[in-house]
Amino acid sequence: MVVELDDELWFPDPHIGEPDGLIAVGGDLSVDRLLLAYSYGIFPWFSFRDSEKPYWYCPLRRFVIFPSEIHVSHSMRTLMRKGRFHCSMNEDFEGVIANCSRLRIEEEGAWLGPDIIEAYTELHKQGFATSVEVWDTEDVDGETGGGKLVGGLYGVTLGRSFFGESMFSLVPSASKLALIYLSRFMEKFGGRLIDCQFETPHLKSMGGRYIDYDEYMAKLKDE
After folding, report:
1. What whole-number distance in Å separates Cα of residue 137 and Cα of residue 106?
2. Which strands sit side by side in the sheet containing 209-212, from one edge to the other?
3. DSSP code of 25?
4. Burial, 141: exposed, middle or buried (Cβ in 10 Å; 0-12, 13-18, 19+)?
5. Closest to 64 in 3D by CA, of 221, 204, 214
6. 52-77, pLDDT tens digit by residue?
7. How far is it, in rounded angstroms, from Cα 214 to Cα 201?
8. More confident position, 112 or 129
9. Rounded to a whole number, what is the largest CA-CA distance in the chain?
10. Which residue from 18, 10, 26, 25 is spatially nearest to 60, judged by alpha carbons?
11. What DSSP designation does 198 have?
12. Side-chain half-sphere CA neighbours of 70 within 13 A
């Protein structure tokens, strides 16, 4: 069953949703509503060209990465040792979300439109959305410089959990570097869970796996 939301801040029980995880339509993308949504593992996902109303999803099989289980392949270790790329956190949130949108904006069903960008940029300004940047420190002449933004990811941070929203790569493996950096940062500082929302071969190869919603919620609330 899919519920129509009103101006009140609430969401239905995710267990009554559709098999694909759709539970509600409507409402807004205010900071308060987004924070309430993520506290239950709910997230907006809709084609901004086809719908003026947000669609809200909460799959009951959750594809997650535990920071301590991140898989770093031999090729990635080799790339990291070369020292060409370095990562940072929250140095260019707007650059990261703009690149995530730009690379997908022409796709059918594209969801990272102006309203989403505005909403998550406001979340970032209030301290609830985080970006990881990957910088290429070599210029075209092979000299080390200040670096060019070539990859990254962003998502929502609540407590010790990170809810991934999107990532991008302008060079091979840049988004993998960002995810490894995030995982190691979270493991070092007590982070518990990275919510990947949906399975992809890319995320599965890096240690992603499914857990059920009840276990997922226990992890979110075990602060």
Report:
1. 30
2. 85-89, 129-138, 144-158, 161-169, 193-195, 61-65, 209-212
3. E
4. exposed
5. 204
6. 899 999 999 999 999 999 999 999 99
7. 24
8. 129
9. 58
10. 18
11. S
12. 24
Query: Of 14, 106, 117, which Cα lies nearest the Cα of 62?
Result: 14
Q: How far, in Å, CA of 41 to CA of 43, rounded?
A: 7
Instruction: List alpha helices for the chain, DSSP H.
Output: 31-38, 74-82, 93-102, 114-125, 174-188, 201-205, 213-221
Count of all residues that appear for the chain in the document? 223
Of 101, 11, 65, 28, the closest CA to residue 197 belongs to 65
Helix, strand, coil percentages for the chain (3-state, nearest 5) = 35, 30, 40
The whole model's pTM is what?
Answer: 0.93
CA distance 96 to 151: 7
Which tokens in the block code for residue 8?
Answer: 């009140």
pLDDT digits (tens, 9 = 90+) for 71-106: 999 999 999 999 999 999 999 999 999 999 987 766
**Residue 200 near residue 55 (C-beta atoms within 8 A):** no
pLDDT, residue 49, reads: 78
| Residues whose CB is less than 8 angstroms from the CB of residue 59 and which lie 6 or more positions away in sequence, other chains included | 20, 21, 197, 198, 213
Pairing of strands 3-5, 22-26: parallel
How far is residue 153's CA from residue 59's CA, in Å, rounded to a whole number? 21
Strands across the sheet with 22-26, in order? 3-5, 22-26, 55-57, 43-44
Q: How many CB atoms lie within 10 A of CB 92?
A: 15
